[in-house]
Amino acid sequence: MGRALGSVWFVWRGGVGRSKGRTRAGTSRGVLCLVLAVVAAVATVGLTATSSAALNGSTYNVIKNADRHQYCLDIDTTFPGVAFAEAQLWTCTKGQEQQFIRLDGILPNTFRIKIENGGGQYCLGVNDFSEGSWLVAVPCGNPSWVPEQSWTTDGNGNLVAHGNIIDPGTRLCADTFPHDQLGAHVELMPCNVNSISQRWFL
Predict the structure, then answer these.
(1) Nearest Cα residue to 57 out of 92, 100, 93
(2) pLDDT tens digits, residue range 107-121?
(3) What pLDDT, on a 0 to 100 scale, did the predictor assign at position 49?
(4) What is the CATH number of the domain that holds 196?
(5) What percent of the chain is helix, strand and coil (3-state, nearest 5)?
(6) Which parts of the chain fold into alpha helices (H)?
(7) Positive or negative torsion for Cα 86, 184, 188, 202
(8) Which of 57, 101, 113, 149 has the greatest number of beta carbons closer than 10 A?
(9) Is it true that the peptide bond before 147 is cis, omega within 30 degrees of 0?
(10) What is the three-class DSSP state of 47?
(11) pLDDT score recorded for residue 146
(12) Closest-CA residue to 198 (of 181, 172, 132)
């Protein structure tokens, strides 16, 4: 869903097919068209993307990162077993390791994110509440892991403009490193509403 930010159409008027004699006016119109195309592409993302806050409890969905390549949130299947396997960015395959469903939270005003892989026994969590902590698969029903698998979203319900997955205990957000790269870790970083790498959508 949503057009990648990198989708830009280069449209030149008054200069198509002419390598010589392009007028200043033609070039200006071409630049204007390019700018408008960029604005339209960015606007398309904002208008059509569904925030991660819309993750529901009835159907599994992929969760995509809003950065340029729009890679999917993925649980690393090369890890020995599902328990504590690391979350990463990966090409969207819609496999079980990329399917997530919303569960009611145990803590007030929170929810959990269950992973289909592993028989639905694992939820998206963190190793600890510190900056740079990686997101991993943790046992959903284990009482000792309740805080680590509790999530909320920012924006007061504004599902389009935001969509950051936030850890409410520390106000750290799910971010990526390195940004927008295949296999990038998904980790907790200070929340920044202007950071495209902290935005997630369905």
Answers:
(1) 100
(2) 777 788 999 999 889
(3) 63
(4) 2.80.10.50
(5) 20, 25, 50
(6) 24-48
(7) negative
(8) 149
(9) no
(10) helix
(11) 76
(12) 172
pLDDT beneath 50, residues of the chain: 1-47, 156-162
pLDDT score recorded for residue 59: 94
Residues 43 and 101 in one domain: no
* Cα–chain center distance at 50: 11
Q: What is the pLDDT of residue 36?
A: 34
Q: Give 188's contacts (C-beta < 8 A, 6+ positions apart).
A: 126, 129, 130, 131, 132, 133, 135, 167, 170, 172, 173, 174, 175
Half-sphere exposure (Cβ direction) of 3: Cα atoms closer than 13 Å: 14
Residues 82 and 177 in one domain: yes
Range of the structural domain that residue 163 is part of:
52-201
Residue type, 100: F
